Structures are given as C-alpha cells and as structure tokens.
Amino acid sequence: MWVYEKKLEFPVKIKNTDPALAKTILSQFGGPDGELAASLRYLSQKFTMVTPQAAAVLNDIATEELAHLEMIGSIVMQLSQDADVDAIKKAGFDSYYVDHGTAIYPASAAGVPFSAAYLQSKGDPITDLYEDMAAEQKARSTYDYILSLTDDPDVIAPIKFLRAREIVHFQRFGECLDFVTDYLSENKVFAMPKTDCMNNFKKSL
Questions:
Q1: How far apart are CA 48 and CA 34, in angstroms?
Q2: What pTM does this model have?
Q3: Does position 192 have pLDDT exceeding 70, yes or no?
Q4: H helix runs in the chain, sequence order
Q5: Which of 87, 149, 188, 189 has the fewest Cβ atoms within 10 angstroms?
C-alpha cells in the first residue's frame, strides 16, 4: 500500500517558457531511460528477488521513480504550457502539439511513444540487478545531457536533484547485488536449473 503526499519530492517552479527544452526533458517521462520505465522495471522485478531486503529495495526505488515521474511531468508542463503557437513551431514541438497539445504524454524526445520493450524482467536476480544498475547510469547520463542544454537555474535545480538520486539508486542496487550474491553462494544454487532454483528460493524464505 502506498500513501501519497500531495507535494513534489523537490520543488519545481519554472518561470520561463521553453518548449524546445520541454520536448527534450519529456524523454525522462516516457523515453527508453526515463522514470516510467525505471518504475515499471523495478516493480516487475521485485517479485522474483530472492531476499526480502532486495525486494524491499526495488519496491522503495520504484516508488521514488514514480515521484520523479511526477517531477518530470511538472517540469515539462511548466516549460510548455504558456508557449504560443509560433514558439511551439520554432521549437519543433508542433508535431507533438498536434497530437497532445501541451498535455503530458509518455514518449521520448524523438516522439516515440513509451514501450514496455524498454525494460526487462528476467527472473534471475543477478541479471536483473545488473540491468537496474545500468538503467540508473543511463538515466544519470541523460540528466547530464539535459543539464548541458540549459542555463535556466529553475530547471537546473530539480534536474540536479534527480541526477543525484540516480547515483544513490545505483549505489543501493550495488549493495543489493552484494547481499543477493552472498545469499545465492551460501545456498549453493548457482548450478541448479532456474526453475528448481526459484522453487528452492521460495522454500527457504
């Protein structure tokens, strides 16, 4: 069960309209390395984690990624909602505008709609945690690229916050990988077929 607190994890108060930047940042809403993909990835993978601690970490981080999704939606909305048609056309935001106006829709900066193909849930805890660590680094890289495209302090502050959280998530997944690897080693399950492996995991919890 989640409890929703009616405030953003970090404040978003953008004064200047910039539809071109909005189009770019939208990728962190519904793009291949965005917050929606991260949250769905971790919520899906938690069910086959082999220790309660690992499942809890995935659930916690997935929940925070939903909060980050809300932040990104707020950033994109504030950057685009007051833009006039000329500014939208000049920014190359017009093709998106025709389909969605300035509403928030999960898509990449290139306009590709969100796809579950962006994420994997493999059922192997080691494989999944390595993917999760890579996902956090890809998101961090995307935030680095976004920061290189703007000098607006109202945008920079929340983006820097989000970037810092990706680094923390990477570290937490690394810790998970350590204790999941220890658990697997202690229970000598590496050589077992995967179906037997998962059955034995469940019996031992």
A1: 23
A2: 0.90
A3: no
A4: 19-25, 27-30, 35-45, 52-80, 85-90, 94-100, 125-148, 153-186, 194-204
A5: 188
